């Protein structure tokens, strides 16, 4: 086998299988880096994973197509409309580790002999019309950790399955009869519910742990499930107390620092401060606020410095203030620290940035440069950043960011970055894409802010900072960000929108750092894709396919090798393909769902299996 043969096998499959959604599989693009849903091995020599959930495939899987992918390890055709028998020629896929055919309309018996798939760790054939009995040869799958045959029409007795690694089993909603064999009696009752099985009276041992990663936190399940020792409890108490103390200290500090920043720069009453004094005693008369063409603001440096100001936050490059001018104009002023370039270079960079005008790029209105002060002026976005919209007060009375808005944020930011990449003769990169730099415009599309800062500031590389979660692996000097590293950071932003999780989570008092990209990659590799999505999104029906597509786009942006990442214009096109944007006539089911009251997540979860949750949210 070779990559060329794999490519042909995939094209043959696509040509012979009707589907409702387009796939970007062109013979002229690179299979490994460009083809949606296709993953190759490290050296790009063979296709090892094919994940095509929700593409709208129908009819039987044509023989002698996918079965030619002899290096295939993961095959997912979940949530399609495939029919016919279990493909007999899958017998050739001997290195499969994961097979996911759930939520289709396959029928007929299961393959009598499972021994060809010795490496299988996960097998999901649930929600189909398979009938006949469960073959005892499943016992040959000694690596199997998860088996889901629920919601079929399987009958007969449950075979004695000696599977030492099996942690997840679901045989519910079939027509199985007889008794539950001893080897499987450790699984919870729900594993076997809705069958004709005779009750067993033995005391069931403790059920084995589920291998699924928790969807609410990226902390590995083993961490949370471990029994707490006394010393750990003591640690938590001591830790809790010190945390309380630190929070109190932080609160006092913030109160003090807020008071200090009542006016934009320095202390003193509004009246007796001259601008010269305010800007750290600089006497250079040439220093003035430089406005860009088209800016309608009517204030000068003096007004700005007189404005009452409130600290919005301290970022990598300085502190951002919300300044309310005397005519009640509100602007954001960023006071930069660590500017590593001279005046000329600073001005040149500001001119490049100031020329960029696009509805998805937050405009730089003005800047100021003196020896001791460097300021940048932007419009104020009252809704706050996407970071706060996504992560702030995740409590009871929180208004979740709905799917429509999340996709519009992603599309807006993608268009903004694509525009930046085309500006300045295609030489410009943003360098600091992250959710705290993304705001919403009037139509709720995302806009990217903070352009052009990394290149004029001294390199700041903190391994465990918030920014680190967005930084592409090849970026060691923050001044040398590239368009490809922007694509990576943008991929992380999409993952953040999909999962609702921060890109870096520091747990265990800073000892352990969970990187969102690595976590998502590991979950997707195990094919538990549904587990990565933000639980807040589960309430919106019919979006699963779009979420999966968006996930695939994000995954293509965060590949390790920069050259293999798509260009930003391509990313825009891919996201545009996920939804019908800019049109009032949304697909009917979606329109319905957005107008109606969403189903509370508990109600969906109450319907037992994960498969059912999926069914609820997909078409
Ligand atoms: N134009 C704006 N309107 C409203 N809030 C803003 C605006 N610009 C920045 N902020 C908010 O002010 C805070 C500080 O912003 P700042 O950009 O200084 O830091 P950051 O985004 O956390 O990090 P970095 O300096 O790396 O961009 C953030 O919470 C940011 O969302």
From TrEMBL:
- Keyword S-adenosyl-L-methionine in the entry? The reply is no
Q: Does the keyword Heme apply?
A: no
**GO CC aspect terms:** plasma membrane
Single annotated GO MF: protein kinase activity
Question: Which keywords has UniProt assigned to this entry?
Answer: ATP-binding, Leucine-rich repeat, Membrane, Nucleotide-binding, Phosphoprotein, Repeat, Signal, Transmembrane, Transmembrane helix
- Enumerate the CDD domains for this protein: STKc_IRAK
Q: Please give the SUPFAM superfamilies that the UniProt record associates with this protein.
A: L domain-like (SSF52058), Protein kinase-like (PK-like) (SSF56112)
Q: Where in the cell is the protein located?
A: Cell membrane
Question: Which residues fall in a coiled-coil region?
Answer: none
Q: What membrane topology is given?
A: Single-pass membrane protein
Task: Locate the region Disordered.
Answer: 582-610
Name the positions where ATP binds: 334
Q: Where does the UniProt entry say this protein principally localizes?
A: membrane
Q: Which domain of life is it from?
A: Eukaryota
Q: Where is the composition biased (Polar residues)?
A: 594-610
Bilayer-spanning residue ranges: 232-254
**Basic and acidic residues: bias regions:** 582-593
Q: Which residues form the Protein kinase domain?
A: 306-581
The cross-references to PANTHER family, in alphabetical order and at most eight, read: OS01G0223600 PROTEIN, OS05G0588300 PROTEIN
Identification of the protein by name: Protein kinase domain-containing protein
